[in-house]
Amino acid sequence: MVDVQTEVHIRVSRAEVAAFAGNPGNAPRWYGNITSAAWLTGPPLVVGSRVAFSARFLGRTLDYTYEVVKLMPKERLVMRTNQGPFPMQTTYTSSDAGDGTFMTLRNNGEPRGFSVVAGVLMGPMMRRAMSKDLENLKSILESQRPHT
C-alpha cells in the first residue's frame, strides 16, 4: 500500500482554490507529470464524472480514467481509478487558513504486479512530485491574485 499526503498554504480563498484545483482542465497547468486531461462525461464536476488523463511517470506514458466518487464543494474532492498496474485514489481537501486556504493532496493505492516491488520506491518519489505540484498550484493562484 502506498499512501502519500502533502499540504500547502495558499493565500487565496478556499472557493478559488477548490474551483481551480477541481477543474480537470487545469490539471496539466499545475501537475508536473500530467500532459492532458479530457472530460469523458462533460462538465460540471459531479459524483460519477469521468475524466481521462495522460501522464509521464518514470519515463513512461500512463493513460488512465478517474471517476469522482465524493464531492463536497469547496471542501473535498475524491477521485479513483482502478486501471493499470497502480490503482489510485486522489483526494483534495481545502480548509480555511486565516489569510487563505490550507490544501491537502493525498494519493493512496495498492500496486499490482511489478508495481508491488516499485511501490516501496514510489512513496518518496510521489511525495516529492506532489509537493512540487502543490507549490505550482500555489504559485499560479497567488500570481493571479490582484496586488494591493
Average predicted confidence as pLDDT: 90
CATH topology: Alpha-D-Glucose-1,6-Bisphosphate, Chain A, domain 4
Do you know the CATH architecture? 2-Layer Sandwich
Low-confidence stretches: none
The strand order across the widest sheet is 1-7-6-5-4-3-2
- What's the domain count? 1
**Please, how many helices?**
3
Instruction: Look at the structure and name the CATH superfamily.
Output: START domain
How many strands, which pairing sense, and closed or not: the largest β-sheet? 7 strands, antiparallel
Shape by Cα distribution? globular
CATH class: Alpha Beta
Helix share bin: 25-40%
Distance between the termini: 46 Å
Key words describing this protein structure:
148 residues, alpha+beta, Alpha-D-Glucose-1,6-Bisphosphate, Chain A, domain 4, seven-stranded antiparallel sheet, 3 helices
Task: Characterise this structure.
This protein has 148 residues and is of the alpha+beta class. It has one domain: START domain (Alpha-D-Glucose-1,6-Bisphosphate, Chain A, domain 4), CATH 3.30.530.20. Helix content is 28%, strand content 41%. It is built from three helices and seven strands, in the order βααββββββα. The chain has helices spanning 14-21, 27-30, 115-144; strands spanning 2-10, 34-39, 50-57, 60-72, 76-81, 88-96, 101-109. It has a seven-stranded antiparallel beta sheet with strand order 1-7-6-5-4-3-2.
